[in-house]
């Protein structure tokens, strides 16, 4: 399927989820993450969900990371350059929604992408080869291309893999894993 078709399909499927289903599925995803070989790493990048887009609630993952004493990194997006700046999440971090309802840090201690070891990647859909479909702005592909090649990229999805995404670009960065409430995909 084409990315455009997948975006429409999965936005519609998300809208059918109740608030309770969204929470239960988000918790199931967090629990599945415990089985991944990532917990010896220190620097974890996570997205804060856009609740209006019914994204995976990453609060459960934040609790896991915090409980395991990991360094948690969140980003701020620049829509002119399509780049993200990454900040350490601390007790003093102030979070504010931007004009696109993305919760972001106001400021803080900046962390370079080459220091990040694990990235939890938001997505709308993914295929069995580890290709993903996001919102189409390229923020995560830009960001992931700045990370080290050994950085572990983990997609989080409410839904299982599509067979194939047909319009892949050279600049698209593949995932290493994708975790759904029922499965762990390894690529």
How would you describe this structure to a colleague?
The chain is α/β, with parallel strands linked by helices and 187 residues long. The chain has a single domain, classed as NagB/RpiA/CoA transferase-like (Rossmann fold, 3-Layer(aba) Sandwich), CATH 3.40.50. It contains 4 helices and 11 strands, in the order ααβαβββββββαβββ. The strands form 3 sheets. The chain has a 7-stranded mixed beta sheet with strand order 3-2-1-6-9-10-11, with helices on both faces. Strands 4-5 form a two-stranded antiparallel sheet. A two-stranded antiparallel ribbon has the order 7-8. The longest helix is centred in the first third of the chain and has 15 residues, at 19-33. The two termini are 19 Å apart. The model has no long low-confidence stretch (mean pLDDT 95). Keywords: ATP-binding, Ligase, Magnesium, Metal-binding, Nucleotide-binding. Substrate binds at residues 48, 55.
Topology at a glance:
Elements: H1 3-15, H2 19-33, E1 43-45, H3 59-67, E2 71-78, E3 83-88, E4 95-97, E5 103-105, E6 118-122, E7 125-126, E8 132-133, H4 139-146, E9 152-156, E10 177-179, E11 184-186
Parallel strand pairs: 1-2, 1-6, 6-9, 9-10
Antiparallel strand pairs: 2-3, 4-5, 7-8, 10-11
């Amino acid at each position: 399927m084409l990315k455009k078709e997948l975006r429409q399909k999965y936005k519609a499927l998300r809208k059918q989820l109740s608030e309770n289903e969204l929470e239960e599925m988000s918790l199931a995803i967090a629990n599945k993450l415990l089985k991944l070989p990532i917990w010896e790493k220190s620097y974890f990048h996570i997205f804060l969900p856009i609740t209006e887009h019914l994204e995976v609630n990453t609060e459960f993952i934040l609790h896991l990371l915090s409980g395991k004493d990991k360094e948690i990194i969140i980003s701020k997006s620049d829509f002119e350059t399509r780049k993200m700046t990454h900040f350490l999440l601390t007790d003093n971090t102030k979070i504010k929604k931007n004009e696109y309802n993305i919760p972001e840090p106001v400021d803080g201690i900046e962390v370079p992408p080459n220091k990040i070891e694990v990235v939890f990647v938001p997505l709308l859909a993914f295929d069995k080869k580890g290709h993903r479909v996001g919102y189409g702005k390229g923020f995560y592909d830009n960001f992931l291309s700045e990370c080290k090649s050994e950085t572990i990229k983990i997609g989080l999805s409410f839904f299982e893999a599509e067979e194939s995404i047909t319009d892949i670009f050279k600049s698209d960065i593949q995932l290493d894993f994708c975790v759904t409430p029922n499965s762990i995909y390894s690529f």
